[in-house]
Amino acid sequence: MVQHVRSSTREQSKCTMWYAYRAGRITASVMKTACCTSTETPSISLLKKICHPEMHKFSTPATTWGLDHEADAINSYVAEMKKQYASFVHSKSGLWLCSDHPYIAASPDASVQCACCGKGTLEVKFPHSAANKGVLAASETSDFCLEFVDGSLRLKRAHAYFYQVQTQMGVYGVAYCDFVVWTPMELHMNDTFVQKMLSSARKFFTHVILPELFTECFTMKDTVKPTSDSDKDSFCYCQGPESGKMLARDGDQCNYTWFHFACLGIKRAP
């Protein structure tokens, strides 16, 4: 049974049976949540994920990012390992059921092996938060999975990923897991993004910085006053009509008497 499940689910999330065999089992990816939730008032979302995995698939920018780059990450890892270990081999991993505790299962990204290190598992993560800054910079944030200890990066012991890889090693009966955090280190020019950025910057410079430099319209202390018909020709620098909440200038340094809250970038009077 264990071998059949393992061999028939090597495509993991692309395989219908992978979801079927996960149903009712605590898998490595939810092990921490299962250990920490109350047995009197358990997490309903966790129960749904465990008992009905096929019905609770989800897609986020982070998961899409991971799926798009999974092959890149594994290929990079394999290439590096083969440089160091001539006997290194790896293979796809299906869902493994724990023989001692059949309600526990795990499916790492690959099984790995070499002559000197023996058998192990591979778990690859693709932190979307580190996509544009790299692993070292991301490790300085409190919510990242890695931390510096004695000058080296390590997986945080209280993190869900630590529970995950410990479960994988226990189910597989191996002594180590290669935990790989992958992120592209090169950034290339994104013309569409740059044009949008420049357009926004130009608008901010024209409508905010220039008026401030000449008249200090934004940094002066203003007072909210009710609008009046006599001010119709001296409204906001946007030249728009009198509408919504507006702020009156205090002083005569500015050519305009009233300003829209939105044009000033505020929601209430200072």
UniProtKB/TrEMBL annotation:
Domain YqaJ viral recombinase: from-to ranges: 18-173
Cross-referenced Pfam families: YqaJ
CDD domains given in the database record: PDDEXK_lambda_exonuclease-like
BP terms from Gene Ontology: DNA repair
Coiled-coil regions listed in the entry: none
Record-given protein name: YqaJ viral recombinase domain-containing protein
Organism in which the protein naturally occurs: Haemaphysalis longicornis (Bush tick)
Taxonomic lineage of the native organism: Eukaryota, Metazoa, Ecdysozoa, Arthropoda, Chelicerata
